[in-house]
Amino acid sequence: MKVAVIGAEGQLGSDVCDEFEKNSDDVHRVNHAMLDIALLDNVAIALSEIKPDIVVNTAAFHNVEKCEHDPFTAFSVNALGARNLAEVTREIGALFIHISTDYVFDGTKLQPYEETDTPRPLNVYGNSKLSGEYFVRSIAERYFILRTSALYGKHPCRAKGGLNFVELMLKLAQEREVIKVVDSEIVTPTSTAELARQIVEVSRCDAFGLYHATAEGSCSWYEFAREIFALAERKVHLVAAGPHDFPAKVARPAYSVLENRGLKAIRLNGFNDWRHGLKTYLGLSVGAAR
User: Fold this and answer.
1) Band of pLDDT at residue 33, cut at 50, 70 and 90
2) Residue 61 structural domain
């Protein structure tokens, strides 16, 4: 299969390319310098030249604070970009796989969100991604929308200064004796390697639609940090940050755990518990007892 991966140099896109190549697919790595998805003509020309069977969109403007200050760019990339890709993939008959986010929810449910739950984004980023979802659902004929959460992977994430949460914690462990991490936001840390494998898996089926795609289980950022330090055997004084230690600049959901009900229903859920993904990322044996 010929696969075009949009955002191929990103944290997720790099792993998606690698995983499709492991599957012996013909992968075309498309980065921002090659394609501005906010421009319909650019999308049409690029994809018409590649003639892909599958298009995977991992590109997004996902710095939450920057989105809040620049909603025009956020909607141009996350909403109109998704619309443009949906239109062109429909025209060329390609399968479209679009990555979305847990931030489409407001976090008030306090139990895992299912695909049928009503979205209610709290910020510009969440609203722009939800708009992109609606465009894809109303335009594309063959599509998968995969909502995910708290991604980390081996490739740098430009929106986070090149450091994912795991690497940031390990860096801080070398620099500080005391580390404060928020304990009030509950997420599901998800390895980009696991998500990439899931993307390849769904690309081979025809149960099109909207799915949640995260690791199993949940934790606070504080609990995630505690597990990182324990597995990496780093001795630090970890403190749960108080409500005023890191004032929120942008409203975020306090609880954004997703339930992979849809993937389980079609027997394609390939995710492990989030600790399994972390152990693999750190190069530890997943069967080893701590």
Assistant:
1) confident
2) 2-153+190-216+257-274
